[in-house]
Design goal:
alpha+beta; 5-stranded mixed beta sheet
Length: 407
């Protein structure tokens, strides 16, 4: 492998993990053939496998993968994977049609609407397998055109979905404005940057000059350059969610495989240094190397300049937690562990937690999104967080005392 201290051969523990890895590696191999034996498939714990493919958001890919075998899945498992596959295919088609409709509306007003994340990856690197899961649409506009873009979205049937956060709050502490279309309930995140504002200079200032043309359902659109797409994937890891999700790793691996011959590493390293994004890039590349054998030039690792202790912590977390089935409580602790490793400084992750968006607050505490109760708790978040920690610590202590009494 390209990076010396990485060695995944120590323990790829159970059959279910081997199957999950083979599914994503099968996509990377351009769907040539599975490398799992029939005997291994016969010993699968299907409920556990379904949990894993759900967590890693690869259930639709799993359906295509298992179609290469006959009579291998339990009926309920196969039906679930099949429903996921066709649901995602239909949803992706609707998303793309809706996005192209919006592109025409924005073009008429001479405003560029650039797809990012899943919406851009589908026509770019998922042409062989279009069942990549998406929960919403993400697109980017120039910040100076944000107000016009908002007006056009509202005119197109969308409404702002700000929750308890004000417009100014979202502008100053995030890089997108959320919208929702009542008819269909679709979510649209209108980005005006790929990361929150910095005190010194814009993040990725050359981004708009580096756009590349792309065919999408027979229509010409513009998408981010491969290098800026890598930044969009790495920076997305900083948001609350499934930090170790293999779908994200697959995105990175497919991107680097397609553009490996002319990928501009000098640009990536320069912008990572200037924008303090070295740790996020390192973490994202590390996952792709570990699980999908992505080839990264040795000089990249050295020039990223990540400290030895941080490399070790990243590696330990990725190897220990990627395939463990977690409770929501453990997932929160994992999020916090990863959070401070994805920034180059200490202040930025602290600022992100202090200025957490209503959306991320609700997800973190497993609260109903935008419910009146959630909005009240969000306004009292500086008291609610310590209160929850105190209650949790007290309950843990009570449980420990009861366990000692039983013994």
């Amino acid at each position: 492998m390209a990076y010396g201290f990485i060695n995944m051969q120590n323990k790829e523990p159970i059959n279910e993990v081997r199957v999950v890895l083979d599914i994503v590696r099968w996509i990377i191999r351009a769907k040539q053939y599975p490398r799992i034996s029939w005997g291994e498939l016969e010993r699968i714990n299907w409920p556990l496998l379904i949990q894993l493919v759900n967590y890693h958001e690869i259930a639709p890919f799993a359906y295509s993968y298992f179609n290469l075998f006959s009579q291998v899945a339990q009926d309920k498992s196969r039906d679930f994977l099949k429903s996921q596959y066709y649901f995602v295919l239909l949803q992706n088609s609707l998303f793309q049609d809706e996005f192209l409709r919006l592109v025409d509306i924005f073009r008429a007003e001479k405003i560029a609407l650039v797809p990012i994340k899943g919406l851009a990856l589908l026509p770019d690197v998922y042409t062989r397998q279009s069942a990549r899961n998406m929960v919403d649409m993400d697109a980017l506009v120039r910040e100076e055109e944000l107000e016009k873009a908002e007006f056009l979205l509202i005119k197109s049937g969308y409404s702002k979905y700000l929750g308890s956060g004000s417009q100014a709050y979202w502008r100053n502490n995030n890089c997108n404005i959320p919208f929702k279309k009542e008819k269909g309930g679709w979510l649209f995140e209108l980005h005006f940057a790929l990361d929150i504002k910095r005190s010194k200079g814009a993040v990725l200032p050359k981004l708009w000059d580096r756009l590349k043309p792309m065919d999408c359902n027979g229509r010409q659109i513009k998408i981010l350059s491969p290098e800026d797409t890598l930044f969009s994937l790495a920076l997305h890891q900083r948001r609350f969610g499934r930090r170790l999700c293999l779908k994200n790793t697959l995105d990175t691996a497919l991107l680097l495989k397609k553009y490996q011959n002319d990928f501009d590493w000098d640009y990536v390293l320069g912008q990572a240094q200037a924008g303090k994004m070295r740790s996020a890039i390192f973490f994202t590349l590390l996952q792709a190397v570990l699980f999908l054998d992505t080839q990264i030039p040795k000089t990249v690792w050295k020039r990223l300049g990540i400290s030895f202790w941080k490399k070790g912590l990243m590696l330990r977390i990725i190897k220990k937690h990627t395939f463990s089935v977690k409770s929501s409580k453990k997932a929160k602790y994992l999020y916090l562990k990863c959070h401070f490793l994805l920034y180059d400084s200490l202040w930025l992750p602290i600022r992100h937690l202090l200025c957490i968006t209503p959306e991320e607050f609700a997800k973190f505490y497993n609260l109903p999104l935008y419910a009146p109760k959630t909005q009240k708790l969000y306004k009292a978040r500086f008291f609610y967080g310590p209160y929850k920690m105190f209650i949790r610590a007290s309950l843990d202590k009570i449980r420990q005392n009861k366990s000692r009494q039983v013994v």
